[in-house]
Amino acid sequence: GRPTTGDRWNPPELAARAAYVIRGNSAGAMTRAAPDLYPHQWSWDAAFVAVGLAHVDVVRACRELDSLFAGQWRTGMIPHIVFDPSEEGYFPGPDRWASAELTDDAPRSPRTSGICQPPVHALAVERIAEIAAAHGGPAAAHVERWLPGAYDRLLAWHRYLVRERDPQGRGLLTIYHGWESGMDNSPRWDPVYAHVVVGDDLPPYARRDTAVVADASQRPEPAEYDRYLWLVEQLKRARYDDARVRPHAEFLTTDVFASAAFAVANEALASLARRLGRPEHDELLGAAERFRRGVLDARDEASGGLALDVDLVTGDHIRVETIAGFAPLISGGLDTAAERALLALLRSPRWTGHPALRHPVLPTTSPSSPEFRPRAYWRGPSWPVMNWFLAWMLNRRGAKDVAGSLRAAALAELSDGSFAEYYEPVTGEPLGSLDQSWSAAATLDLVL
Ligand code: 2M8
């Protein structure tokens, strides 16, 4: 049964349980994103899971990323799912994606999806190296030996994103599917999906997510899901070739959140280049600067300084208050006054200071906005992994105060011990999948 919201675990017990959950979700060299709902390896989940693993088993943390890297495409793209060949319980699975069948850029083994997710991997590698260095001894030595190979993978990944996902040099990554943002049904994609028209030749399918999460109101609606699958068919028609996808895409938008993460990830990779004596240091810093600038230019005064996305099909700005709007706090470069104002907005009653919230966490959509739906996946619930990630990024930029409050709030939310995928932010009820790997990983990094 589901834990009641009254039970609370203290941090050491919670960390022990988190380690147990991650180990339980292991399928050998990869960790399932969740035991039933997501029985394969997801790209950004794997990065975050590896950070959690680094605290308990650095060798396993490196293997986690190596499994993901094994799915890397010839283009450099790291696919959003690397499929576990022994698992059939997910839709859309490898047969539906048919990536290796459609393009030689995709590996034949392991089988993968044909899209990507936010590029947080270099940040994970930086953090793993930090954790290993703090442990010292064989853990640190193992990571030292592993870093050069990881660097090559990451460099190819970053170059793919610069080349294919920002061909016009806007300093903003372009995505072809809401799934690429990792925030599938965020209200910021509503206007973009509004002009995706599902053809009557959409091959039939049966969803798996609603079979696992019984309360369908917590998941995307059928009409939304049809569009998700329709876009997959469109990508297949273009044989997952970026040059063929871009001109005809029905869904094409910037992603300020992924762009901000990419800016910082480039910084992290540039430091790694220097450390390894590689020549790409300046190239990577240049990319960091370009994407930092892109995110800064996406800020909207009328929205209190939140960064907004642009629907690249219509050219319209997407005016909704979601967690992604805080992207400039991730990538930095704000002047002191602007940074203070955005941090103040984060703590204001529109966000973590909202009086109805059970914990002062950042929900995915502002509780004060008309789009807020507290149980509906990326439309309102608070995601511990996102609060942890934001706190980590704030800390990295020196905003220790706000980072500390977010960390404490995320930990309080997680201390029910369910490691839920997301939480109803007003009641604190755990929702979605329980024992979600990245929720457990965030816990380990918060406590240890
Ligand atoms: C969710 O996405 C998948 C599709 O990729 C799904 O709904 O089936 C998102 O929360 C995504 O961000 C996450 O990486 C994935 C696995 O946790 O689940």
Question: How is the secondary structure organized here?
Answer:
Layout: H1 11-24, E1 41-42, H2 43-56, H3 58-69, E2 81-82, H4 94-97, H5 99-102, H6 121-135, H7 137-165, E3 174-175, H8 178-181, H9 190-194, H10 209-212, H11 222-237, H12 242-248, E4 253-254, H13 256-276, H14 281-297, E5 299-300, E6 306-307, E7 309-310, E8 317-318, H15 327-331, H16 336-347, H17 384-396, H18 400-414, E9 422-423, E10 430-431, H19 437-447
Antiparallel strand pairs: 1-2, 3-4, 5-6, 7-8, 9-10
Report on the architecture of this protein.
With 448 residues, the protein is mainly alpha-helical. The chain has a single domain, classed as Glycosyltransferase (Alpha/alpha barrel), CATH 1.50.10. It is 50% helix and 4% strand. The protein is built from 19 helices and ten strands. The strands form five sheets. Strands 1-2 form a two-stranded antiparallel sheet. The longest helix is centred in the middle third of the chain and has 29 residues, at 137-165. 54% of the residues are buried. The model has no long low-confidence stretch (mean pLDDT 97). The structure holds (2R)-3-hydroxy-2-(alpha-D-mannopyranosyloxy)propanoic acid. (2R)-3-hydroxy-2-(alpha-D-mannopyranosyloxy)propanoic acid is lined by residues 33, 38, 42, 44-45, 80, 179, 182, 184, 209. Residues 33, 38, 42, 44-45, 80, 179, 182, 184, 209 line the site of (2R)-3-hydroxy-2-(alpha-D-mannopyranosyloxy)propanoic acid.
